[in-house]
């Protein structure tokens, strides 16, 4: 193969001059133009990837709206806030702020202007609105405008792809590539960037996913709209342009035959030149990318549904070809399904006449038992008007709740433990938070009691065991994050309050109430599978949890806090939830998230377990030394000390007989007075 390469492309051959001559001329041209326009070396004006990302997310407008507020320039503040919110509709604080601004006296809808409008999206949505209203004359005007602006935006995006090489892996120690490898890698990166531009323009600001077939969909809509207004010539042109993307579309081919008959066989019907150029150029780039992936390695996520199958190399097709049903079944390790069954009058979740496999499924997927004495199910999913929701009582005793509340107070007095600050969700409450890792650090330094810090860890693990046994007995749950949180009402700021303590959201996806969808994509915590809130007190007003429909408005269930109550639910779009405003007092609870993914298990939790184990070993050694020094005792050192009153705490941590093992797992084993 090396000899063949040398014969086909000898180093320093004529092909090099033919290739690099135009490249060098273009580099000279670009450098001259940039220097003339910018007045200094172009490299001085290149923004970092982080800065470019911030501007794409419109982050500067978040700072601008604060600055305009300080300058008392209300109109500019509203425009800046709205511009930021358009691109960040999941930003809970800004969403609440916008609602407040809308209720302010003298504020009109015209005050909320998008300072970075996207012309092709404005025209597209207007065109689709006219189209759906059967206003086809207006529709073709706006859709043509949208298509023109979209292709222009596409060219601007492609031009930005020709920037410096960006090493995504940033592995400095890796061997530097040679001339041809470096050129190939950079060029393929540029090609992939250009291909992704169609997704860039097809993604509406504030949305995560792109509209599929954005360019072809314009032509499809235009074809029908022109046909409805009687302009068969332009309808045929749009149909021919659509066939450039999908040449075998049967419906469109039938329409083309009809148009040829209506317009006459002598009338030439061809696709638009800009569309032909767009498709031909895109196919040429895809061919180069697929060659690079096949021979040089790497991956390529083709953004287009219309890419011809024959363009993809056979070796890549084989690699990504779905397995046969037999192979797929043989390779399965875990099966994850969601089935919904209903309790019958006789207590069965299915009738006795149901197929046996359904009865077996029903038994397997029915909620499991609770593996701790004293813990009871208070409300199940049916009583809470939803799915995968449950309320447990008795998870903590009154004494344990007081100990955890004492932990929050001691951590606050330590100065760097819990810090009261404005809530990230509302200015009307103060927010305090303590993680397991921070609690252990404070315990090591002597600022909080070791037993209280350990109790926080145990409460998290115990809640996880309860949730796992009830919802997921066949799959292990790992702690993803534990957060002891207190929300305190600011007394002087409660009058006229209209907001929530925590706006409605889902825990592992980005909720889109208008689209009735929840996007399971970053920045959401997509790996979280189950959520829980373990309440510590009820001596406050408000602060209850509520569930809603996807519209975030229709309330389906409410949970009132009390000591030891655990509300648990799956973290997805089936359980949008929020927290009512805390109007008086201080509400404390342990927020809990769990995941099936071992890779996303909380590292602080694991380190905390190691610290406790090390401390226990050290304590056992100390106890052994003290035991050897004492005399006159009939008790052996391994015997537990006599206890006059075991107290309420130990009962809540005791497993039911036969619920799991006779002995608790080490990390849940009670020690001292636990």
UniProtKB/TrEMBL annotation:
Which family is this sequence assigned to? Belongs to the leprecan family.
Organism field: Dryobates pubescens (Downy woodpecker)
Q: Which Pfam families match?
A: 2OG-FeII_Oxy_3, TPR_leprecan
Protein name in UniProt:
procollagen-proline 3-dioxygenase
Domain named Fe2OG dioxygenase: residues:
482-596
Which residues lie in Basic and acidic residues bias regions? 612-629
Q: Record's Gene Ontology CC terms?
A: endoplasmic reticulum
The keyword Membrane is annotated on this UniProt entry? no
Gene3D superfamilies in the record, alphabetically?
A: q2cbj1_9rhob like domain, Tetratricopeptide repeat domain
User: In Gene Ontology terms, what is a biological process of this protein?
Assistant: collagen metabolic process
Mind telling me which InterPro entries this protein's record contains?
Leprecan_dom, Oxoglu/Fe-dep_dioxygenase_dom, P3H, Pro_4_hyd_alph, Pro_4_hyd_alph_FE2OG_OXY, TPR-like_helical_dom_sf
* Tree of life domain: Eukaryota
Region Disordered, as annotated, extends over: 612-674
